[in-house]
Specification:
- It is a single chain.
- By secondary structure, this protein is mainly α.
- It contains three helices and no strands.
- The protein starts with 10 loop residues before the first helix and ends with a helix.
- The model has no long low-confidence stretch (mean pLDDT about 80).
Length: about 80
Amino acid sequence: MPRGDKSSYTAKQRRKAEHIEESYEKQGMSEDEAERRAWATVNKQSTRGKSKTAAKKNRVSAAKKGGQARKKSATKKSTAKRSR
């Protein structure tokens, strides 16, 4: 795929980029700069969700391994020490 090819983006991402680009142009930015920033924004927003999903998967796998049970018992011990 050549650099700058937008065929792999979803329709929603294309619409979002178009709206962002129009907003930048209304602010007085050149068409080229507005397009570049719009796609950069779409890329940034698209990758944020993936990192959250990966983090959630890691938490779930830790819970399966018993990590959550260890955390709870450690919290109970520290709470008991404070009440003395």
